Amino acid sequence: MVDTVLTERLGHVLRIRIHRPEKKNALDAATYQGLQAAIETAEADPDIRVMLICGTPDCFTSGNDLNDFMAYRNSPEGWKDRAGAGFLPAIAFTRKPMIAAVSGPAIGVGTTMLLHCDLVFASDTARFQLSFVNLGLCPEAASSYLLPQRVGYAKAAELLLLAEPFSAQQALSYGLVNAVLPQDQLMDHAMAVAARLSEKPAEAVRVTKALLKDRYRQIVADTMENERILFAQRLKSMEFEDAFNAFFKSRSGSKADPA
Prior knowledge:
With 259 residues, this protein is of the alpha/beta class. Helix content is 46%, strand content 15%. The protein has helices at residues 29-44, 66-73, 87-93, 109-112, 143-151, 153-162, 168-174, 186-198, 202-213, 217-235, 238-250; strands spanning 5-10, 13-18, 50-54, 98-102, 105-107, 119-123, 127-129, 166-167, 179-181. The strands form two sheets. Strands 1-2-3-4-6-9 form a six-stranded mixed β-sheet, with helices on both faces. Strands 5-7-8 form a three-stranded mixed β-sheet. 44% of the residues are buried. The model has no long low-confidence stretch (mean pLDDT 92).
């Protein structure tokens, strides 16, 4: 593991914590690699039955690190071969249950990764935003398919095209989270649910998850690949360059990005 991803075994549950507080938990290459490694470790360990992903108490993740975007934009290898590229397939296709506990901002990929989680609990401080178009980019993580499936086309278009933030209670009303808890109760609640789930017959749980998800597996994989190609093109666009420069000018050099 890397120091920006902390893991802890609690019975049959692996808690995976994004821990880059000085950058508002922005996901850089090393953090993506750490998250992927944690998921793959849990998948291979028969003693781990459930994963729980969270951030710090004040922030789930502010999204991708924009400096990494610019580095890949200028790299001859391009976006496809970036470090940590396996995280999205890892979280999308894991066979074991994945629970998320979200407090504070969950921006860009911080929201789209939740579409792959089986249960999502949010604190009343949580704030979500699918801000890709604001940066001249396009959706990723198969969200262009999964979000309309979850919330309907009209609401998905609103969230992706207008790209405005929305609250935990709104996320609950859209069907994006299972429950909203007071901040001081969030982790206890999520861990209690994870522990309860981990005590159920493990193979029955995995088969049930497969029945829920496998019919869409190829569509999700194909959508994710199509989004990757378009995302790479958008990274090289003048719209992204302008948004990148405007963002850093407005944030006085902040490295965390809503994407």
